[in-house]
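Consider the tokenized backbone below.
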């Protein structure tokens, strides 16, 4: 029986049962997972209902593993980039809520750059080209008066959990094994 490397991936949690990394998601292919389990680096949290017979014993594929020792996580922040801005705003124009593809949205500086608006999470939103054109360097109040346009999102620094949950809804992670859901999405699901 041949088991492909992309079958039975294992989600890796830290010793405190939080994902070692959410973005990108910390996972191992089944061979690396097996090595780590064999070396005693991980403890099994949840197993798949699938196994492999070796010459001496049955190896059950782990679905969720936790580090035996806690690993300091350096930076839990979400990288500020085009992809993540699109995910935070759920692939929609912040003004008219039109669905936008990743390659077609434009950045809007809520407070225009000419007025000292900076390029950071709190001042950047996804916008469609027509809305962005109408907005230009106008203030929110002006653009509401002139074009009846309202900002429908609050530009904010997203958490990794928020991005992970939204990426999942937008299909960004591909299929997620059911066993992983409890460890990945509880925070954002509770927020809703
Ligand atoms: Zn729009």
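A designed sequence for it:
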């Amino acid at each position: 029986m041949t088991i492909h490397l992309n079958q039975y991936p294992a989600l890796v949690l830290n010793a405190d049962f939080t994902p070692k990394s959410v973005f990108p998601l910390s996972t191992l292919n089944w061979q690396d997972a097996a090595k780590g389990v064999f070396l005693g680096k991980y403890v099994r949290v949840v197993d798949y209902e699938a196994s492999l017979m070796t010459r001496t014993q049955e190896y059950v594929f782990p679905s969720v593993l936790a580090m035996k020792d806690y690993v300091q996580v350096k930076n839990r922040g979400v990288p500020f980039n085009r992809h993540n801005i699109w995910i935070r705003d759920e692939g929609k124009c912040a003004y008219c809520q039109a669905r936008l593809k990743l390659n077609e949205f434009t950045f809007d500086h809520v407070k225009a750059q000419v007025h000292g608006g900076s390029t950071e999470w709190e001042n950047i939103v996804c916008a469609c080209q027509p809305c962005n054109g109408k907005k230009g360097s106008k203030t929110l109040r002006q653009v509401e008066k002139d074009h009846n346009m309202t900002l429908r999102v609050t530009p904010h620094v997203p958490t990794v959990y928020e991005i992970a949950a939204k990426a999942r809804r937008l299909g960004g992670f591909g299929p997620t094994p059911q066993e992983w859901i409890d460890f990945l999405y509880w925070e954002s699901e509770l927020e809703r």
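Residues 93, 95-96, 98, 127-128, 130-131 surround zinc ion (CB under 6 Å).
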